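Usage

Read records sequentially. Each one opens with the input sequence:
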Amino acid sequence: MIQLVDNIRKTRIFVLDLIKELSLEKLNKIPHGFNNNIFWNAGHLIAAQQTILYLRAGHSLSISEDFFNNFKPGSRPERFFQSDEEDEMKQLLFGSLDILENDLQKNLFETFTPWVTRTGINIENIREALIYLHHHEGLHTGIIYSMKRMVQK
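and closes with the structure output:
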């Protein structure tokens, strides 16, 4: 399962490389036709990881509740995110994966509540949840890529 986490890490490295030259203003800009921005999508990767893995397994968040609430599924950016929040988001993109690896090694996810995603995918265990998380990361990476093109115009 550590290989699955490594794949997610590679996706996040790609995301950071994709957005590295964007100003805070561009990260916060909501492009026409969207209801969120690049900053929210990057933070959402972390919050979704918490929902898909930790909350579904009956565990508490491994990140702050404030951060989670800003980026959880169904939320939208309610304000302009600041540079200190950008630093936190970038740290959590990888720090949350380090915690996850440690938790996997401790068999923290032996108990997992099966669920069905909005798209009808059955998730029965932590391995399937990690595979789904990678799919989710790819979806939001594509959104970030599209938004980047729009905010640079």
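Summary fields computed downstream for this record:
- The chain has a mean pLDDT of 96.
- The first helix runs from residue 2 to 19.
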